[in-house]
Hints:
321 residues, 19% strand, carbohydrate binding, signal, D-ribose ABC transporter substrate-binding protein
Amino acid sequence: MKRILAGIAAAGLALSVAACGAEATEDAGGKGGGTIAIITVDPSNPYWKAEVDTAKKAATDLGYDSYTAAHNNDPDEQNTLIETAVNDKVDGILLDPAGADESIAAVQKVVDADIPIVLINAEISQTGLAASQIVSNNAQGATVGAEAWAASMNYKGTYVELFGNPSDNNAQVRSDGYKQVLSQYPDLKKVGQEIANWDRQEGQEKMEALLAKNPDITGVISGNDEMALGAVNALKAKGRLDQVKVLGFDGSQDAVDAVRSGELVATVVQPIVEGTNDAMKQLDSVITSGETGVSEEKQALDCVLVTKDNVDSVENLVISE
């Protein structure tokens, strides 16, 4: 009888401890618990840094541990990071993929391991694998950016384009969006294009090469802010910045400040903070319930044009109401 009573008491104590643990997790704001791997591109870029910082905070608020890693748009490195996360038996993965086609096998590996995965910022060219794919509406953003830039050019002049990483589907979508708008204005003539892989230093170097071939251009369109700011540096060095209109894309704080100072005509804010928060909520929902809670796998969030008229409403990729 004493042994039975002791067993009952021990069971009661275990239930009490378990209940306290559950209550502590709930108080911390989390529904699930466990570990989430946050795999991004390059946190030294302010855009991806905002993505990482937002994801880490959201994971903590939801009651998860998390760790971050970066593949720098290298599919092989991405595969290594995915294999590590799978071997670590993480509870979920938030991935900013390294290429639309190149990332399919990596996502499939996660799915085969029965680990929930949500994609943010860039999509893959296959549906039915990731629980969600949340991206900015890059075509819409490129359209509004190109219209504002064309107006600043008075719809005439010669220009060049800085193109992002070719493996990233966003690079082509933005370039196509620019083309769709600018092709409507026959007096705007594109005379050159260089790939600068989303990088500021590479943007500067490629802009220098473009200027050597086309010294009299009057405009630059860029697939992202870092390349645009590299172009600004090159134009400054040649003393031509006040004669050339430059367009960025992303809405990084450096770019917003450049719009304020007149170095950029405009930038286009991608809602990466909003998108990352949505992604983490949906990942938590899949972990805890098996469902994202939304009806569509692919979700696009509209971008916002930033010019001198509304530049003071933007701070660190967040637009105030």
